[in-house]
Fold this protein.
Amino acid sequence: QGMRGILVLYAPLLGIEIIRRLRNVLHRCKTNRADTLISIWVIVLLCASYLGTCFPFSVGQDISKNLRKGFNKLFTVVIPDIGKGIGYSEYNFIGKGCVLLLLVLTVIVLIIVLYRLVIGKEITSFEWCYLVICSSPIITALIISFTTAESADRYFFMLMPAMALTIVMVWQKSQRGVKLLLAGYVILLSIVNICQIYVPVLQSDDPPDTEAYEVVSFLEENGCFSAYSTFEHANMMTVLSDGKVRVAPVASVSNMDICKWLSSEEWYPPNVPLRQRTAYIITEEEQESFKDFLVDKSEYIEEVIQIGIYKIYMSDFNFANLGIEYKE
């Protein structure tokens, strides 16, 4: 939905559809009514998603250019998030080797399909779908890198079906020996997943030892049970604290206004006391925006500690709000 839906799904879909139609024109391929309907459908999806951001109650996302620091953000933020998105850091040596091999195989298959596209070979419907899915993480990575949009590992979830479809495509065009190798590879990766990730999770009663868990543990130890952070971090932290610390999501750290998605008005003033020990959890990327929030409140808010990427600010006042409705 909205800008994130355009970023991850509808922009790549429209881009590949434009390429498909241009290819049909250049190579004088026959088209039918279905081609026209598909193009209309793709444009409608994009327009509907964009129009959804124009309503007063929609949650916006301020994005500006980041051309100067784009490559630095790509290598220091976006690529690590891609790794998190496919669980690369969670694997042992064998698992990392399997995932890396699968990524390389995906790149090779994608290059082959693109080469066939360029030289005018016939591209099947399955291959067009493959191009859409593979283009999503590439386009998303570039847009996030060269704009101020915040990166998140979930934006690259399309890599998972892309890698799965790679196995299917290679399987369809391979002989018995290669198919046996692929089957063995899939079984090995599945066993690694089950043994290293799922079994420990099922057996453990403790939450994962992450920076987010350290944050809520610190807040609980210091008697602070109300906090605010952006959507990417808030609800996860509430769950990690088993509900002891309520970290409510905000649409922006510059205004501390309600995020109207998976939240409740009961978590924000005036529905909670203004005089209340409150924490504001800010990531390194959000520091500049948070300075706008501090302009007239700096004497009431103090920086307490930094845990990993998170800086924790505390105040005896709750400055969060219900956004447009509250301001009016």
Notes: The chain has a mean pLDDT of 88. Strands lie at 226-230, 246-252, 257-258, 275-283, 301-307, 310-317.
